[in-house]
Write a structure and sequence with these properties.
alpha+beta, Fumarylacetoacetate hydrolase, domain 2, 8-stranded mixed sheet, 4-stranded antiparallel sheet, 12 strands, globular, hydrolase activity
Length: 251
C-alpha cells in the first residue's frame, strides 16, 4: 500500500495549528523514502504560504545533500525577539546563509560552481531555531523528522555582507554566546564541508519540484556549531569574525 502523503502533511499542519504534538505520523502515512519525505515537505510548505528560502546540508563532504523549503513566514530579516509560544522545543545553530540576487531555474545541464556563485548577492550570518512537531527531537523515525521540514523552527537573518568573495566558509571562525557567556568558539564546524556544492545540488536537484531557486531566496547551508538547546528567555549571539553577527532571543 502506498504511503498516504496527504495524511502525513495534514497531521503535521494540524500539529502546527493546535500545538498538540505528535507521537508519530499516522499508520500508513510514515514516509519510507527520501522522495516521500520530500513530497510531504512540499505539501506542508504549499499550505503554509510562499517559500522564501531553503535549508540544505550534508552529513559529510562526500554525502548526498538534503534539505527543506523554508516558508517566508519563518524567516526573520529584522532584529527582535521571537515568542516562545510558537515553539515546542528550542534548539540553536549558528549558520552561514546565501541571499540570491538572480534566479536559478531548472535546466538539463548542471549548474557550474561559478554560475551559482555569480547568482549570490550577499552572505549573511544566521541563527536557525530548531523545532519539531513531534513530542521531542529524535522521538520518531528519521524520515518523519525529515518530512517535518528537517526540524526547522525559524531562521533569524543577520546583516548582509555584499563583498563576500573573500570569505572561506570552511575555515570561518564562529563564536556562539548565550546571555553574554561564550558557549562555543571554533573554526569551521560544518559537517558538509564546502557549502557551494550544496547550493549546486539545490539548484540542480533539491528545488527542481518548486520551479528552481528565485532571486530573494535565503539559503542556509548547515550548522557551524552543532545543535545546542536553550530555555525561553535566553539571548543568543552568533559572531562570525569578518562576516558579521546576528542576535536574537526567544521570550
Amino acid at each position: 500500500m502506498p504511503t498516504d502523503i496527504a495524511a502525513a502533511a495534514e497531521a503535521l499542519l494540524q500539529a502546527r495549528k493546535s500545538g498538540v504534538w505528535l507521537d508519530a505520523l499516522p499508520e500508513g502515512a510514515r514516509p519510507q523514502t527520501l522522495e516521500e519525505a520530500a513530497a510531504i515537505q512540499r505539501l506542508v510548505a504549499e499550505a503554509r504560504g510562499p517559500v522564501g528560502g531553503w535549508k540544505v546540508g550534508a552529513a559529510n563532504p562526500q554525502a548526498t545533500p538534503g534539505g527543506a523549503p523554508l516558508n517566508a513566514a519563518d524567516l526573520q530579516m529584522t532584529p527582535g525577539p521571537l515568542p516562545a509560544s510558537r515553539f515546542n522545543v528550542i534548539g540553536v545553530e549558528a549558520e552561514i546563509a546565501y541571499l540570491l540576487g538572480r534566479d536559478l531555474p531548472p535546466r538539463d545541464a548542471p549548474y557550474t560552481r561559478e554560475e551559482v556563485l555569480d547568482a549570490v548577492e550577499s552572505l549573511h550570518p544566521v541563527i536557525e531555531l530548531v523545532d519539531t512537531r513531534f513530542k521531542r527531537l529524535k522521538s520518531t523515525d528519521p524520515l518523519s523528522h525529515t518530512a517535518d521540514q528537517v526540524n526547522h523552527g525559524a531562521l533569524v537573518i543577520g546583516p548582509a555582507l555584499a563583498d563576500w568573495r573573500g570569505i572561506d566558509p570552511v575555515n570561518q571562525p564562529v563564536r556562539l554566546s548565550f546571555d553574554g557567556k561564550t558557549v562555543l568558539e571554533q573554526v569551521g564546524g560544518n559537517t558538509a564541508g564546502d557549502p557551494v556544492r550544496l547550493l549546486q545540488w539545490l539548484a540542480d536537484t533539491g528545488a527542481r519540484a518548486y520551479g528552481g531557486l528565485s532571486a530573494g531566496m535565503v539559503i542556509t547551508t548547515g550548522s557551524c556549531t552543532g545543535l545546542l538547546m536553550i530555555e525561553p528567555g535566553t539571548r543568543v549571539l552568533a559572531e562570525f569574525p569578518g562576516l558579521g553577527s546576528v542576535e536574537t532571543a526567544v521570550d
